[in-house]
Amino acid sequence: MPEKVTIADVARHAGVSRQTVSNVLNTPEVVREETRRRVLDAVEELGYRVNQAARQMRTGRSRLIATRIEPDRDGINGSVLDRFLHGLTESAARAGYRVLLYTADDDTAEIATFADLLGAYEPDAFVLTGTHHGDIRTSWLLDRGMPFVTFGRPWGVPDGTPHAWVDVDGAAGTAAATRHLLDAGHRRIGFLGWPAGSGVGDDRREGWARTLRAAGVDPAGLDRATSDGVDDGEAAARELLESDDPATALVCVSDSLALGALHTVRSPGAAAPAEHRAGPPVAVIGFDDTPVAKAVGITSLSQPLAEAAASCVTLLTRLLDGDSRPSGSSGDPHPHVLLQPSLVVRRSG
Questions:
Q1: Which of 26, 188, 304, 311 sits at 20 to 30 Å (Cα–Cα) from 182?
Q2: Cα(269)–Cα(341) distance, rounded to whole angstroms?
Q3: Which of helix, strand or coil describes residue 149?
Q4: Which stretches make up the HTH lacI-type domain (predicted)?
Q5: What is the pLDDT of residue 328?
Q6: Which runs of consecutive H residues, i.e. helices, occur in the chain?
């Protein structure tokens, strides 16, 4: 049986003290990046495995961050959170944490899972995704003083920001997409979105509507709300493209709806009659820059998911270390980060 690798072996291999190795594994924020990297390389090369039970007794921390894994849904937009989870796992590892995944069908089931995980694994913190109006998950964690950060804003909270969060500015993204289409010569720019009440969907719709109004275009009658599926996008797009005064371009709240819209645009006889479509070809822009959008050539808005994940870990480690000072703001006691999406132009727009 191979001899067990010890913390002393790692220290000798990295050329540092045993205390430095312990700091890298337990409080990595106190160690310089160059030294931390050298120690982690030695850990990986030697195959050192931390005794989690002993470390938890010593530090009072499990070094676990729990987060939910989303259902696959249509296989298109579910990939967004897959990329976020990949980035979260990498960022957590660099900070000396591991990600604990769980599933839940709804908010109530997720809260029950919180209680189970806290009893069985004692995670140090949670990362919540899919925030929405009336989110009872955040209230449950706040009431118990449990550290957490959300990937998504606290929608519909009247008294300001009640917790740490990271989000991507959806309104800025759809505004950029709409300006791109206006610059290309489009004026009748439609919007395919979700039913009102979705924080994310309403935010993305507002960027489109505000940009049209600023250009002197009335957005009334140019949007359709529907479920988030390819068939739904196809049907909603057909309504806008075959109306008496058809849209010549579409901004979509997701790549699923954009793919459906593109099916309508490319179907012979399905889009608006030729006499209504003078000027630029019908353009379609999605949101999330999924692998499907790349494969079929849909112009889409890309979210900086690796940066979002890294920001979540940074805010969490700051909270766990007792530092809740906001980053780059004064007067707001809760740290938050709002990131900007980027428009990736392809054949569809």
A1: 304
A2: 34
A3: strand
A4: 5-59
A5: 39
A6: 7-14, 18-26, 33-46, 52-59, 78-94, 107-120, 136-143, 170-183, 199-214, 230-241, 255-266, 291-296, 305-320
Residue type, 227: S
Q: How far apart are CA 188 and CA 267, in angstroms?
A: 20
Question: What is the rounded end-to-end Cα distance, in angstroms, of the chain?
Answer: 61
- When pLDDT is averaged across residues 250-270 and rounded to a whole number, the result is 89
| 97 and 63 Cβ atoms separated by less than 8 Å | yes
**What CA–CA distance (Å, rounded) separates 286 from 231?**
15
CA dist., res. 96 & res. 118, Å (int): 19
Q: What is the amino acid identity at position 344?
A: V
d(CA 337, CA 281): 38
- The CB-side HSE value for 246 (13 A sphere, CA atoms) comes to 23
Specify the DSSP element, H or E, that contains 139.
helix 136-143
**30 pLDDT more than 90:** no
Domains of the chain plus CATH, in order, are 7-52 (1.10.260.40), 64-168+305-339 (3.40.50.2300), 170-302 (3.40.50.2300)
- Residue written as token pair 């935010």: 203
For residue 93, report the phi and psi dihedrals to the nearest 5 degrees. -60, -40
* pLDDT band (50, 70, 90) for residue 157: confident
With a CB cutoff of 8 Å and minimum separation 6, the contacts of 290 are 76, 77, 79, 80, 255, 300
